[in-house]
Write a structure and sequence with these properties.
This protein is an alpha/beta fold. The protein contains 13 helices and 13 strands. It has two domains: about 220 residues, NAD(P)-binding Rossmann-like Domain (Rossmann fold), CATH 3.40.50; about 100 residues, UDP-galactose 4-epimerase, domain 1 (Alpha-Beta Complex), CATH 3.90.25.10. The strands form three sheets. A seven-stranded parallel beta sheet has the order 3-2-1-4-5-6-10, with helices on both faces. The chain has a three-stranded mixed beta sheet with strand order 7-9-11. A three-stranded mixed beta sheet has the order 8-12-13. The model has no long low-confidence stretch (mean pLDDT about 95).
């Protein structure tokens, strides 16, 4: 039995990882630490009960006394750090919290791990990061593990700083640390500030669909379950001190993603009388698309080369983007109670701040 400490385990990727590991490795003990900020949600972990195999602790990774106490009590074999502020738009509005959580919080975790793990090669520290640390690509090429860092947003810069700390703790103190850099995730339990859940929910409700700039920005899309399986693989087989890029091999333009979501929801509503009654809409939801003022420093294109993961470990994505995006749309349609509780209060205040003044009223050209 391994004891695995999962920080940020009530967030989007973290909760999916906890649920994945509960099924894949039921013998492991999972200790989840989460501050339950706006994006942390205990409803993501519903069905898990406190006991020998699972424990939830509400707390801040910046609290060294708390974190050190967890290490002493639980004596984890593995730490997987998902705890992070992750939305670029919020980092532009308020970068301080990103420095606090993503840099200082990572430092606190590393200090606690160094005190507990030392240079024991059997004790692993997995730091989950992003492809955004590499900056923006031109029309060709992809990020590899050797690509120089060139972050362009406060979010990306804060994650880049934490990646460097993790590397330093391995080379200086011998901590068996590994960093993973992933492309854009999507799937169940994603907070609706991110592109895919925002577009699904707005399209269902017949609200305008705000698309930054000209919609031509390109991202590589990784289904969250594939990401979880990759991290599981890195825990099992990854080499200390290494970096592993995890991608979906699914580059798509933002405008194409939004159009596909509209088509899938139109099809679903046409075949489901109750859904159509709950969210009445005439015509194609593509007519809801509105281009809005672009955000500052918006990177044009990301793409991940995950050859290292594929060649070293035989890891690969389980299904194509078209299958996973349909499953994602279906999940949000079938779990309306989950997101209806979220899109109120503080979230709507943020939504109006972020998009209310940007709406240009310009719809995409036909064809």
């Amino acid at each position: 039995m391994r004891r695995i400490l999962v920080t940020g385990g009530a967030g989007f990727i973290g909760s999916n990882f906890v649920l994945y590991m509960r099924k894949a490795h039921p013998e492991d003990r999972l200790i989840v630490l989460d501050r339950l900020t706006y994006a942390g949600n205990l409803a993501n972990l519903i069905g898990l009960e406190e006991g020998p195999e699972y424990s939830f602790i509400r707390g801040d990774i910046n609290d060294l006394d708390l974190v050190s106490g967890i290490f002493r009590k639980e004596e984890p074999d593995v730490v997987v750090n998902f705890a992070a502020e992750s939305h670029v738009d919020r980092s532009i509005l308020g970068p301080g919290e990103f420095v606090r959580t993503n840099i200082n919080g990572a430092f606190t975790l590393l200090e606690a791990a160094r005190a507990c793990f030392g240079a024991n090669p059997a004790k692993r520290f997995i730091h989950v990061s992003t492809d955004e640390v590499y900056g923006s690509l031109g029309p060709e090429g992809a990020f590899t593990e050797e690509t120089p860092y060139s972050p362009n947003s406060p979010y990306a810069a804060s994650k880049a700083a934490s990646d460097h700390l993790v590397r330093a703790y391995h080379h200086t103190y011998g901590l068996a640390a590994i960093t993973t850099n992933c492309s854009n995730n999507y799937g169940p339990f994603q907070f609706p500030e991110k592109l895919i859940p925002l577009m699904i929910i707005n399209a269902l409700k017949g609200k305008e669909l705000p698309v930054y700039g000209d919609g031509q920005n390109v991202r590589d899309w990784l289904y969250v379950a594939d990401h979880c399986s990759a991290i599981d693989t890195v825990i099992e087989k990854g080499r200390a001190g290494e970096t592993y890029n995890i991608g979906g091999r699914s580059e798509r333009r933002n405008i194409d993603i939004v159009g596909l979501i509209c088509s899938l929801i139109d099809e679903r509503a046409a075949a489901d009388k109750k859904l159509k009654e709950a969210y009445p809409f005439e015509g194609s939801r593509k007519g809801l698309i509105r281009f809005v003022k672009d955000r500052p420093g918006h990177d044009r294109r990301y793409a991940i080369d995950c050859t290292k993961m594929e060649k070293e470990f035989g890891w690969t994505q389980k299904a194509a983007f078209e299958e996973w995006i349909k499953k994602t749309v279906d999940w949000y349609v079938e779990n309306r109670d989950w997101w209806e509780r979220i899109i109120s209060g503080e979230y709507m205040g943020y939504y109006e701040t972020q998009y209310g003044g940007r709406m240009s009223g310009r719809a995409p050209a036909k064809g």
